[in-house]
Amino acid sequence: MLSKKKYLPLIIGVAVATGVFVGGKLNFSDSSDRLFTSNSKKDKLNRLIDFIDFEYVDDVNTDSIVDVTVNGILNNLDPHSVYIPKEQLESSTENMKGNFVGIGVSFYTYKDTIAVIRPIENGPSEKAGIKSGDRIIMANNDTLLGNKLKDGEIVKKLKGTLNSKVNLKIYRKGEPELINFTVKRSNIPIKSVDASYMLTEKLGYIKVNRFAESTYKEFKKGLDKLQNLGATEIALDLRDNPGGFLSIAEQMVDEFLEDDKLILFTKNKRGKIEKSFATDEGDFEKGNIYVLINENSASASEIVAGALQDNDKGTIVGRRSYGKGLVQREMDLGDGSAVRLTVSRYYTPTGRSIQRPYDKGNKDYYDEYFDRLNSGELLDAEKIEVADSLKFTTPKGKVVYGGGGIIPDVFVPIDNSMHNETLSYLQRRGFIAYFVFEELEKDRSIYSNFSKRDFIDNFKITDDFVLKFQEYLNIRTTSQITFVAYHDEVKQYLKATLADQLFGNGAFEEIFNQRDIMIDEVIKLSDGE
């Protein structure tokens, strides 16, 4: 089961929780005696917490004290060493694993019911016969009606163990009675490859949203598909990708680099260096590659871009990336919570660290986006600040810089037309998606004769449809919103959202990208312009 949300704000707070991880987890039971032996510093904390627990005049939740203490310790380290409370760890782990056990539907909590946007293709709900627009009223005799249930509680009622069954009662428009369905829960993928399709006869496009355990398999499937369609060049879109597993980034780079090329190296506090090299497994070593990055492309995304740039492979297109060159390892704390601790730094093949400074504290570190915005860097490549002391040279003589992100080979400014504040707000708050869902609910048969390809190529959003959306907003918001200045952009959002709810499988990206100036630039580069 998936709750549908698209396009988070530009500021990438998720990079704190995602980052780039080494392959394994560190558990107390796995650790050496030397690492966790008693000492006076640890005893001091333990004695203080016990003293409060047993002697303090009022009742105190010592669990909350421990949480505050852990956060306080980590806040004195680096911005990417983080504490993950028990209630957040499960969803975080699922996101990075790339799947969960559920019934396989995208849904809204719509008014007072669970409304199915679309069953996941080939998932258990689709196989059982559940359709878009169905309302899930009950699950195993638990009522799901009412405004009191939160998304998290709904998810728990629909999740379960693998191959277990859940009995659902469904309301379907036009049916006189509730319909009973029995759905066998299965592994539901959380897609990390949003889209893979051909931009031109020779240029394929792949959009990757994170580096989870399942990402490489998804990516390889998309790459193979594009090669079979004739792609000799690939546009790899890593914009807004906050990172993930180090090993997955290495596998992805290996598809493009020749044998024995250095991908990256890491160095820990004891100076131990570990190097990663490309193997003979790559299937796209001869093809040309364009990597799309922006200010929200972080860690594992930067590993891919840096490895290719430093090996003079392909072209990096976009804006300076986030600037995270630290590697974390997760440690289970024994109570369902965990810590992700920075254990090493990584370096690109030329030896540069792209970690930006964090010596002024976490607030300044995360506010740097606004510094970039205010300096004009997102609009003008000349505004990017570089230090000569951090200058490096690739084997073919190209100058690259460390010290704060990957600077692209070809700069593309931020597009304020498709990413203006009003449209981003409406998309983020779900106004566009809810409006589209309500319009579909009026009569889904209007779109029944469209295939995905036919819809993308030929369907037109009318001016009346835009006017309906404006009237919808005027009823539901306090401010009067007009679309005179960006009428065509609104049509693009509406059409892309319609396609997503009707077809999924990258339809949103394929339509939305038609007005994307960075993709236009990649097509021009591919055509030799």
From TrEMBL:
Membrane-spanning residues: 7-28
InterPro entries recorded: ClpP/crotonase-like_dom_sf, PDZ, PDZ_sf, Peptidase_S41A, Tail-specific_protease
Domain of life: Bacteria
Residue span, PDZ domain: 99-174
SUPFAM superfamilies: ClpP/crotonase, PDZ domain-like
Chain ranges of the Tail specific protease domain: 176-357
Keyword entries, A-Z: Hydrolase, Membrane, Protease, Serine protease, Transmembrane, Transmembrane helix
CDD domains: cpPDZ_CPP-like (cd06782), Peptidase_S41_CPP (cd07560)
Similarity annotation: Belongs to the peptidase S41A family.
Name of this chain's protein: S41 family peptidase
UniProt lineage: Bacteria, Pseudomonadati, Bacteroidota, Flavobacteriia, Flavobacteriales
